[in-house]
Amino acid sequence: MTGQRAPEAVRLARARLTRIVEPGWEVAGRWLREFGPVETVRRIDEAEEGADEPPPLPGVRAERWAGLVARARAAPPPERDLARVAERGARFVCPGDAEWPGQLDDLGDERPVGLWVRGGASLRMWALRSVAVVGARACTDYGVRMGATLGAGLAERGWVVVSGGAYGVDAAAHRGALGAAGATVAVLACGVDRVYPRGHTQLIDRIAEQGLVVAELPPGDHPTPSRFILRNRVIAALTRGTVVVEAAYRSGALGTARWALRLGRHAMGVPGPVTSGVSSGVHELLRKEGVLVTDAAEVIELVGDMGELAPERHGPVLSRDLLPPATARVLAALPAQGAHTVAEISREAEGGADETIGRLYELRSLGFVERQGDGWKLTRQANRPVFPDGGAP
Predict the structure, then answer these.
(1) What's the pTM value of the predicted model, to 2 decimals?
(2) Which numeric CATH code is attached to 317-386?
(3) pLDDT digits (tens, 9 = 90+) for 352-367
(4) What string of DSSP letters covers 14-43?
C-alpha cells in the first residue's frame, strides 16, 4: 500500500505492543494517548522483572505489570512479525497511516493498537461504505439463507460486507458477497496468518484474495472467548451499521449490535419466527432499540446517503381499488353472495335509484357484476388482484 505512513519507530512500537497488551484494554489506550507508543514500549522494556518499585506506567496493579513485563521479555522482535506477515501478503496498519480507518478512533482508549491486514484493498476506503452482517453460529436454514441474501444484495449495490468469519450467519454473509463478485472483510479473533475455525481455511483464503482479512492479534496468536467478544467492537466501529440475523439472548452478535448503538451506528435486526429461540435475542433488540430490516435495500436506506431509499412495500392491488369513489361505493354495497335488487343496493350505497343503475351498468361493462333476473350479483373478477406484469397469481 502507498500513501502516508506512521514513523517507523511508532510502527515498530505499536506492532510490539500487540504482543504485550490484550485488545481493547483501556489502560493501555491511556498510555498510548498520554505517553505515545515509543515511550510506552520503552518503559515496559526497561522494567526489571520482580522489581518492588511501583510500575513506571500508571493505572496498573503490580501483578498485572509483572505479567506485561514477562510477555514483553518473551515476545519476538516486531521486525520478525512484520516479515512473517509480509510472507503471507499481509501488513501492519496503525494510526498515522493513510490506510487507517478513522472511524476506529470512535472507540477512544479502546481503539486497536493497530491492525494486521491481509489482502490488497485499502481498509480505510472499504470501511467508508461497509455494513456488518452477523448472527448465530448454530443458525437455521433460514438464517443461512437470509445471511447470504443480505451479503449478496449489499455487495451488488456496491457495499462492503463485514463479518467475523465464523460458522453460520457470518460464513453465509461472506459467501453471499463473494458469490456476487463483491467486497467482504473478515475480522478474526486470532492472528491474521491463522484460520479459525479451521474448517474455513478455503473461505478465509478466498476472502483474502477477493477482499480483506483483519486481526488485532499478532501473527500466530490463538483465539479465546474473551477475544471473540472484544473483536466485535472492531466490527461495529469499522462499519456504518450492524445487521443481526438470528441470535439468542446470550449472543456475541448482539454484543456487536450494542457496540454499534454505543458508537452512534445503526443497529438492525432481521426478524424470525416468534417461537424460535435462535431469534429471541434479535426480537429483544428490535423491541427495545434496533430497526427491523428484511433485505439489503432496507439496510441501505438506513446507512446509505440521502436518496438511497428502499422501494415502497404494499400488497397486491385489487382491480376494484382503481374504480371511481361513487362506483366503488355501489360495488361495496353488493353482498358477497346472492343477487339483490336496485332498491336494496341503492339504499345500502346511500344513493338514488337512477344513479345506482348507471353505476351497475358501468360495473357490468368492467366485468364486476352481472344481472340475474331482476337482481344484480358480483362476478368472480370483483376481488381479483392486479399484478404489475398483468399475469395471474
Answers:
(1) 0.83
(2) 1.10.10.10
(3) 888 888 988 888 888 8
(4) HHHHHHHS-TT-HHHHHHHHHH-HHHHHHH
